[in-house]
Amino acid sequence: MLELTDYETELLAGSEGKAKQLAMKMMVAAATVAEATSFVDVSFAHVGSGFYAGQVSLDFAEFLLRESGAVSVPTQTNSSLIDFAHPNLRPHSSYPTETHGARRLMQIYEELGCQPTWSCAPYHQLDGRPEFGSQIIGSESNAVSFYNSVLGARTNKYGDFLDICGAIVGRVPFAGLHTDEGRLATHVFHLENLSDSVLGDPSFHHLLGIIIGEMAAADIPAIHGLESADEDQLKAIAAAAATSGAVEMFHAIGITPEAATLDEATGGRTPKRQTALTDSDVHRVRKNLTTDANGPLSAVCLGTPHFSVSEFEALIGQFGGRRVADGISMIVTTSRAVFTELQLRGWDAVLTSAGVQVALDTCTYFTPLTTGIHGLVMTSSAKWAYYAPGILGVPVAFGNQSECVESAIRGFVHRQEDWS
Amino acid sequence: MISGRILNRGEASGPVLRLTAPLSFWGGLDPVTGAIIDRAHPQVGAFMTGRIVSMPGSRGSAGTPGVLGESIRLGTGPAGLIVAKADINLTAGALVADTLYGTQCPVVLVALKELEALVEGQTVTVRQDGTVSLDH
Predict the structure, then answer these.
(1) Structural domains in chain B, sorted by start
(2) Is any Cβ of chain A less than 8 angstroms from the Cβ of B86?
(3) Which of A39, A105, A326, A407 has a Cα at 20 to 30 A from B48?
(4) ipTM for the complex?
């Protein structure tokens, strides 16, 4: 049975206004569904409700603002429908309702007290990153997994409306990944049978994430046998596993902070399932992420999730002074904070002269549709490639970042290895 | 009569639309028309408008509350929802729509056996106390 404190009871009764009342009602509903008996205080939130999904997004935000709603913890915003700095990516003339609504929504979330990060990967910014063990609110699926898995902060995935409501009342139901018990690994994936060439493939972490997402179902996966992984690679696993499946947390034994050993990850229990991956699992996934690898390329889309400074550094090295072929759009999405870093280093000019367009705030998912690109798109993001044929309706070629650069320069898909 | 657990309180009646597989409303429901648009879903093409939708659950998508809320705002959405798995995303969408627009879309949780006994097209009433009765 859910127990409320006096303060929570008052919020529910509306003594602090209608915005907090709705927010508390929402958290009580969430607690009922999760069968939680109490709430836990949070110290940070990353909210996705500022993404314009229709008039209801705006009506809801206006309601919160009008009824004196405000976030009570440091709160960062997830990607927006639009790039505030580059309106040509979604022309106002073609999308008047959406662009107007999205702009207003971005203003309101700032007025509610959010930091305008507008990024699906705000964790690249060290300032304000949640600490190990902290209780937080996450919304975007890759970020939820990154916070849980890589930083050791604790969150379930909070959808539309729920995330900002939690940030307003500063608490969420104490359940699932907020608890010690809910974070233990229950499905171990063994990499020992994989060949060195597969393990060393620059796309390996993306592909591993897709496989784990497909196989893990509701289990918490632990990866056994990964030698090392940097944050960009862990981000790739997080994003891919949350795309092909519903993985909100994974452990990488010897790498992630709650998995110094397999025993620590599982809490010393026998895992429910164990799976030994083979090279053919990886080859199959890699092949399936490409629908078409022939003919001329129309665009290269990188930065899903948003690029880090180190990913830009590698990209500039891969270009080596060369430039994107005429007629090809190469777009990389990132956050305002990472872009400021690029400007400090003078890299924005280097990218511009290479023919690379850097987009902020939004996601390149939307670019083909809103800028009239119909032809083949290449990407190094397994998440982008996974969604492209069904949701975006464009043919896609998946390749590692270096292959994407070589292809952009040539104007057609160029991969080092025959993947068919 | 079925006695369900209330996930979002409300009263509604209408003919049952029986979904035989979980559905993500985000990418699966067009809020403008009320049609199911997920091509992989067995009930693709069916309209939710005015129906009491019975479904095993939603596939957890963070975008589901917004799409459900938008469909209720536009009047294309379901009259009520009967689920066999407790679902916060449907509950959140329905609660927000009720608060903003005063349109009740009750969400009740019932046992899977009871859910499966509901017949496509049969008119049912969901009441404030979470009970579901069959109209004759």
Answers:
(1) 2-134 (3.50.30.10)
(2) yes
(3) A105
(4) 0.93
